[in-house]
Amino acid sequence: MRHLLSTRDLGRDEAIAILDVAEDMADAADREVRKLPALRGKTVVNLFFEDSTRTRISFEAAAKRLSADVINFSAKGSSVSKGESLKDTAQTLAAIGADAVVIRHGASGAPLVLAENGWADSNGISAAIINAGDGTHEHPTQALLDAFTMRRRLHGRGSRGRALDGVSVTIVGDILHSRVARSNVWLLSTLGAEVTLVAPATLLPVGVRDWPADVTYDLDEALDAIPDVVMMLRIQSERMHAAYFPNAREYSRQWGLGDDRLSRLATDSIVMHPGPMNRGLEISSGAADSPRSTVLEQVANGVSVRMAVLYLALSGQRDVAESSITHGPSVTNAGSNR
Amino acid sequence: MPARIVLQQADITRALTRISHEILESVREGDRLVILGIPTRGTVLADRIAATIRSVSDHPVDLGTLDVTMYRDDLDRNPTRAPSPTQMPSGGIDGAVVVLVDDVLYSGRTIRAALDALQAIGRPRSVRLAALVDRGHRELPIRPDFVGKNLPSSRTERINVHLAEIDGDEFVSIDGGTE
Question: For residue A70, what is the enclosing H or E element?
């Protein structure tokens, strides 16, 4: 894996391989010494043009647990506020010598532009570009950690090597602006899950009928099908520039997961939220704090998944493009070249 | 040059039985013995050694798997390796006599990585090393305590270890060697 820009171009085996490596990373977190030396001497730059706490901290923790050096960059208080372009910022980072650039940007496609133009490359070695959320496009590591969380809850210890075939997932909320929803739709359908999207008609994007998911406006109807997973999305007040719904109370009544709707779920179904939560709006405190809620597990799993992504993107010979993953010592070559 | 078989299945079994007895002789009454296999084939060998020790003695034996991928010094020189699971016995390894088991001992770099990996998990009282084949060409000051077969080889030769559990058939062969 050279870059991680989108879950849309992840194959099923590749996605499962990332989740399996994340299992190994999660195991390492239980050890006496949590740090792994795998990325010693590598530099990871967190390039954040949009505000974020959990994603940035999660990537920072992941890189540090792999012994990489981390440089945090946020647009506020940087030369970006003086009008520096993405290209110049990226080239500055390249001059410092970044092996990976974790980028969050308000414009959809900004990570792809970085990856395609190689602005962050230095000394002939291409920097790995990891998309940490771009506009309303994608947030692939969030989808990977969501899939990882589902797999662990559903399959427990026997998660390794398994997909999510037949798992029903209902995603509720602002699909229009949600990069989390998009990344999840592509990844979950690749892994064999059945996705249903629930939103007011005003918060569904054009062309949603072509996505590999069912679409409905009615949350109660979707809950009647007893989904295995209910994923609530945040109402992004910073993107609510038009009258998408009458008011917060109306939204909460129609599309919020309150205590009565929570009680209708199966006992082993799980409630997910990518955070930060608007308690009382899209999710009630009862639902957020119930044993079905995986909100904090998602945060913890996020570090393991991001460690896996950084490890797979940064280890191995990187001048050899698109190097494939090999499993341990190769079968015919046991011991002979170690 | 075609592959030459150097150990047949019966030879491998005999070597492992001998190693098991040597390990037993080396531990004292009351020592906690932990056998750790290094994936992939070291795990299988560790299973067999632990089973043999259990069948001939009532000295308690714990079994585990130690993946060393993240501790290797050649991660940048090879295609990306996916790690394997590490499984430690429930009692951990603190204060135990740990025996690392690998199939082929060559440069010693895998074992160096294993020693680093062990350090992140706990502090054993001592660490020993068992290898089915020692082919020489050490690049680090590391030596085995228990060896199935010493196999002087040239660097250009390949040693192939096949074990029934993984490969279906079982032998150790050597091929290549023409410069």
Answer: strand A69-74
In chain A, the N- to C-terminal Cα span, in Å, equals 23
Q: Do B116 and A331 touch (CB under 8 A)?
A: no
- For an interface test with A, which of B66, B67, B70, B86 has the most A Cβ atoms less than 10 Å from its Cβ? B70
Distance from CA of B35 to the nearest CA of A (A): 18
B26 touches chain A (CB under 8 A): no
Q: Which domain holds residue B128?
A: 11-72+83-154
Q: How far apart are CA A19 and CA A25, in angstroms?
A: 10
pLDDT digits (tens, 9 = 90+) for B20-32: 999 999 999 999 9
Phi/psi of residue A52, each to 5°? -165, 140
How high is the mean pLDDT in each 10-residue block of chain A (338 residues)?
92 96 91 90 93 92 96 80 84 88 94 91 84 96 97 92 96 95 97 97 94 96 96 88 86 94 94 94 95 95 97 76 43 37
How far separated are the first and last CA of chain B, in Å rounded? 11
How far is Cα A66 from Cα B77, in angstroms, rounded to an integer?
Answer: 18
Q: Which fold has domain A140-294?
A: Rossmann fold (3.40.50)
pTM attached to this predicted model: 0.89
**Residue B79 sits at the chain A interface (C-beta within 8 Å):** yes
Tell me, yes or no, whether B170 lies in a domain. no
Query: In the block, which residue shows the tokens 């949350």?
Result: A219
- Please state, in angstroms and rounded to a whole number, the distance separating the CA atoms of residues B94 and B119: 10
Residue in B70, B79, B116 closest to A317 by CB: B79
**Cβ-count burial of A255 within 10 angstroms (0-12 exposed, 13-18 middle, 19+ buried)?**
buried
What was the pLDDT predicted at A95? 87
**Cβ-based neighbour number of residue A241 at 10 Å:** 7
Strand order in the sheet with A69-74: A69-74, A43-48, A100-105, A128-134
At residue A335, the pLDDT reads: 39
**Distance, CA of A139 to CA of B77 (rounded, Å):** 31
**Right CATH number for A12-138+298-320 from 3.30.830.10, 3.90.640.10, 2.40.110.10, 3.40.50.1370?**
3.40.50.1370
The ipTM of this complex is 0.81
